[in-house]
Amino acid sequence: MTFDMAGTIGLAKWWWTLVVRGVIAIVFGLLAFAAPTFGIGLLVALFAVWALIDGVGSLFAGIRTRGRDRSWWIEILEGVVGIAAGVVALLLPGFAAEVLVLLIAVWSIVTGVIEIGLAIRLRRVLEGEVWLALAGVASILFGGLILLFPAAGALSLVWLLGSFAIAFGAFLIMLGWRLRNVDRMARIDAAHDYGATA
Predict the structure, then answer these.
(1) C-beta of residue 137 within 8 angstroms of C-beta of residue 112
(2) Vertex 80, ends 78 and 82: CA angle to 5°?
(3) Cβ(110)–Cβ(58) below 8 Å
(4) Is the pLDDT score of 10 beyond 80?
(5) What's the rounded Cα separation, in Å, for the pair 3 and 95?
């Protein structure tokens, strides 16, 4: 299933939400590298905030495209997963610290699968969809590495988490910037069409 051009233009109007999500991910990644200095509690709190904000962003994206996109529920699912992971980490920090590895791995893999699915749907109308696919691949690889090496140690987890967050954020920013160009071209075309009919 793919987006049509009208659906892509509708998505492009909200390009800035991807940029904001990307910036937040990069900030989280940078802060994660400092987390060992302050303890695992800070890492859990940072992850909770990131998952909640990213989840709300995805939920918002799904709700706003509900009438234009037949697969709007995928983004809502991604949002619900992110919010659930954030709530667990925020409300049960002791529990989250014990199972932080599993929590982050599952969230990362589910998010990655959904991002790749969205990229596949965008591929026929937007060249920049590769950035979303790369974000999904990075997310799945990160989650897989954590599941394969759960006992790698807290410091290794922080390095992996920080590196993943920065790469994921960069990919989202690049896709958002591509959609910004689509939105700008759509506005120019709309203004031209309006001028021609006036």
Answers:
(1) yes
(2) 70
(3) no
(4) no
(5) 40
pLDDT tens per residue across span 12-66? 777 788 888 889 889 888 887 876 666 667 777 878 888 888 888 888 877 876 7
CB 29 within 8 A of CB 169: yes
Residue reference for tokens 């009919």: 197
Reading the block at residue 24, the tokens are: 């937040």
Amino acid at 88: V
The whole-model pTM stands at 0.63
Rounded to whole angstroms, the Cα distance separating 163 from 118 reads: 23
Output DSSP code: residue 197.
H
Q: Phi and psi of 82, rounded to 5°? A: -65, -45
Q: How far apart are CA 174 and CA 171, in angstroms?
A: 5
Single out the residue of 47, 105, 114 nearest to residue 79, CA to CA: 114
**DSSP-assigned letters across all residues of 75-115:** HHHHHHHHHHHHHHHHH-HHHHHHSHHHHHHHHHHHHHHHH
Largest CA distance in the chain: 67
Report in angstroms the alpha-carbon separations of 76 from 20, 28, 86, 121, 130.
18, 22, 15, 16, 21
Closest CA to 168 of 124, 104, 125: 104
